[in-house]
């Protein structure tokens, strides 16, 4: 067997080596033979091979082409692995689902932390073709995703994720489980997109613009932060006090703000 690759910092490479966490992730995903599982960032295959063993086929998206030949060689005996050499942010999941002949994909991955938010927003934009997502992220990001109104860490990520998915933090993973260890704690989260009717009640671009403006200066009132987007009358017509601050609004309030004429 060839020597393990030297992990590349600029690709956010921290390879999971503790088997018990691999097992817990695979048990959480619980892939079935009929699933189209897509792994983001397979790296050396810590999750790929066990997921592939359970699913029988798997599509993996990896940016670092140096890792791909060894991964393919190791997978050959396990099942059908397709590796797409690409930046995941350029992958059209709707086209991928069509090509794989399924209505929805199941995504999984120990994400590269340097672009975890862009990846999450890219996945949200494709929520119609995603059945669920199991992601390893920085623990602090998982906490922000699941945060409730009133909490200091409740913000843009919490609102946008909770309007699109159920967010279930599953378990924490310490730095020592990776090679090399990251500087931060990690956690695994399950995201399940809500039914389309629940996600399409307001124009997503409008919701995003309002949420972004409202949290840009979180100590200021909505009348102030939303000035360029909505006037105080419109905020009132949505049934919301213009003197309130973004951090006190629940995700549904942002939908109402986006729906008001
Ligand atoms: N899944 C492996 C594991 O658990 O050991 C590796 C996880 S490592 C944290 C992140 C992986 O994502 C690396 O293999 C890295 O090369 C890959 N990666 C980084 N940026 C990427 C991108 N934009 N698109 C696809 N893969 C990327």
From TrEMBL:
It catalyses: adenosine(1518)/adenosine(1519) in 16S rRNA + 4 S-adenosyl-L-methionine = N(6)-dimethyladenosine(1518)/N(6)-dimethyladenosine(1519) in 16S rRNA + 4 S-adenosyl-L-homocysteine + 4 H(+). SMART domains: rADc. SUPFAM superfamilies: S-adenosyl-L-methionine-dependent methyltransferases. S-adenosyl-L-methionine binds at residues 14, 16, 41, 62, 87, 110. GO terms for molecular function: 16S rRNA (adenine(1518)-N(6)/adenine(1519)-N(6))-dimethyltransferase activity; RNA binding. Residues 21-195 form the Ribosomal RNA adenine methylase transferase N-terminal domain. Coiled coil: none annotated. It holds the Pfam family RrnaAD. PROSITE patterns: RRNA_A_DIMETH, SAM_RNA_A_N6_MT. It is found in: Cytoplasm. Its main location: cytoplasm. It comes from the Bacteria. GO terms for cellular component: cytosol. InterPro entries: KsgA/Erm, rRNA_Ade_diMease-like_C, rRNA_Ade_Mease_Trfase_CS, rRNA_Ade_methylase_Trfase_N, rRNA_adenine_dimethylase, SAM-dependent_MTases_sf. Belongs to the class I-like SAM-binding methyltransferase superfamily. rRNA adenine N(6)-methyltransferase family. RsmA subfamily. Specifically dimethylates two adjacent adenosines (A1518 and A1519) in the loop of a conserved hairpin near the 3'-end of 16S rRNA in the 30S particle. May play a critical role in biogenesis of 30S subunits. HAMAP family: 16SrRNA_methyltr_A. This is Ribosomal RNA small subunit methyltransferase A. It comes from Aerosticca soli. The lineage of its organism: Bacteria, Pseudomonadati, Pseudomonadota, Gammaproteobacteria, Lysobacterales.
